[in-house]
């Protein structure tokens, strides 16, 4: 299950900003940690810069999917009723609060 997170941060006159706590936790970084900003045709992404959790195969696969979806949005299809039922059964009773703060260490 994919969880989206959006936080707002103000940029100072010196071009500095504070990375919100929930974002730092999601990235698994803290004081002294490094993050990287990537700008491409789809926008800006932020990720850990130390590469500890990088998986080049997954990164390339996800980039391939994103590019394919952007080039051929008509190729996207709805889930079959069977798969939708199976997913519903697997997640039945799972409670998720998207507004709850992230606690503890997070490794992505």
Describe the structure.
By secondary structure, the protein is an alpha+beta fold. The protein has helices at residues 21-27, 56-71, 81-91; strands at 35-40, 43-48. It has a two-stranded antiparallel ribbon. It is extended and about 55 Å long.
Task: Summarize this structure briefly.
The chain has 108 residues and is an alpha+beta fold. The chain contains three helices and two strands; from the N terminus they run αββαα.
Q: In total, how many beta strands? A: 2
Note poorly predicted spans: none
N- and C-termini, Cα separation: 13 Å
Q: Which value, in Å, is the CA radius of gyration?
A: 17 Å
Major sheet: arrangement of strands: 1-2
Q: Helix/strand/pairing class, anyone?
A: alpha+beta
Number of H- or I-type helical stretches = 3
Mean of pLDDT: 85
Proportion of strand residues = 5-15%
Question: Helical percent range?
Answer: 25-40%
Major beta sheet, specifics?
2 strands, antiparallel
Based on Cα principal axes, name the global outline: extended
Order of helices and strands: HEEHH
């Amino acid at each position: 299950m994919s969880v989206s997170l959006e936080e707002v941060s103000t940029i100072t006159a010196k071009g500095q900003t504070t990375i919100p706590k929930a974002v730092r936790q999601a990235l698994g970084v803290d004081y002294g940690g490094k993050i990287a900003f990537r700008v491409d045709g789809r926008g800006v992404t932020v990720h850990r810069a130390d590469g500890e959790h990088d998986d080049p195969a997954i990164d390339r696969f996800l980039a391939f999917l994103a590019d394919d979806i952007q080039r051929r949005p008509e190729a996207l299809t709805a889930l079959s009723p069977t798969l939708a039922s199976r997913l519903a059964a697997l997640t039945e009773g799972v409670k998720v609060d998207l507004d709850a703060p992230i606690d503890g260490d997070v490794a992505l």
